[in-house]
Amino acid sequence: xxxxxxxxxxxxxxxxxxxxxxxxxxxxxALPFALSAMxxxxxxxxxxxxxxxxxxxxxxxxxxxxxMAANRxxxxxxxxxxxxxxxxxxxxxxxxxxxxxxxxxxAAGALIFAAFQLPTICQALLPVAFVILTLYSYMKRxxxxxxxxxxxxxxxxxxxxxxxxxxxxxxxxxVFGFAVVFWVAGFDVIYACQDEAFDREYGLFSxxxxxxxxxxxxxxxxxxxxxxCLMVAFGVLYPNTGMGYWLATGVMGVLLIYEQRLVNPExxxxxxxxxxxxxxxxxxxxxxxxLLDKGFQFL
Length: 299
Known about the structure:
- The chain has 299 residues and is mainly α.
- 77% of the residues lie in helices and 0% in strands.
- The longest helix has 31 residues, at 207-237.
């Protein structure tokens, strides 16, 4: 009995460490937009099939887990040198590099398996997905545009949700996807401001290093303005958006203004609130309001 209890405790501890390694809770950023895209892509009066939703969920979780595990492996030495990140799982010694590699490979396998249960175009785009998911971890070594690559990774998930339903690529989901690109790039620039001094000293590239914190925060505002403009453009161009979508766009705009007001070049104390709390609320609000829109189609 004691042995079983000990094994269960060890299993839970390892599971917690792996979840912490990949920041599993941050899945809340991309997943709701992928699900929202699925709802928007579905014909009026129809829900996405249960199996499509399940395979998209597996693909999203697998893809994001692969990307984060790979990132932690690739950045292990940088994380160890940065005082802010020395407590992460690999530099702190709580997770071995071999464990992270196995986790990345298993997650990649889950993404591949899920994609092969979806329309052919999802399978054809798998190599592109892996390039984007892997490239982000190397970008800061040679370009300040890493924030946009991260945005493309999450924006692609929204496009992927659309493709899972329709099986056909068109320019409309790309507009929606680019709204996500600039949303993510905007908040990632804010997050990167706290590492500006370290990145500059270590020879890493970022927009805060290139433009200074003040310039980077200004560009973050521009990115978020572009995000709202693209959300509006999608709503105008796509005939099946309803009041829920427009309310979601308005809520998103208000929360992005609040997010931008939380930080300034002289005070970055609320970066974590701006990064995680506000953006988590944005993604969930957009999904719930789009879901509400879909529900009204059946009344």
